[in-house]
Write a structure and sequence with these properties.
- By secondary structure, this protein is mainly α.
- It has two domains: 50 residues, no CATH class; 49 residues.
- The protein contains five helices and no strands.
């Protein structure tokens, strides 16, 4: 049987649900026989659940982040020279130059 000190590094990953298949089987077998480790897994599982419930951002930050995002989106829709339009503008400019050069060549060559 595996000792408690050998199982200890695996308990946290097992409680979080990220242990690989082999480690999961080892911990489950050990926990069936060891009351102390079973209690430790249950405690670690409860801590993991409580941590998942905590908000990712402190209070007030999420509302400010949402306002900042809305302001950036509003500014982007007002700005006609956004980066996503550059390929279109460059293509239109090159096409205009090509047409102008062609017209000038036709005019000067008299074709």
């Amino acid at each position: 049987m595996v000792s408690c000190t050998d199982i200890e590094p695996l308990l946290s990953d097992y409680a979080d649900g990220i242990a690989d298949e082999r480690a999961r089987r080892i911990v489950e077998r050990h926990v069936q026989l060891c009351t102390r480790c079973r209690q430790r897994v249950q405690a670690a599982h409860q801590v993991a659940q409580q941590l998942r419930r905590l908000p990712l951002l402190p209070a007030g930050v999420s509302s400010r982040a949402a306002r900042f995002k809305r302001r950036l989106e509003a500014r982007a829709t007002r700005d006609p020279w956004r980066l996503e339009h550059y390929p279109f503008f460059v293509s239109a400019l090159l096409a205009s130059l090509l047409i102008l050069i062609t017209l000038l060549a036709l005019f000067y060559l008299g074709i």
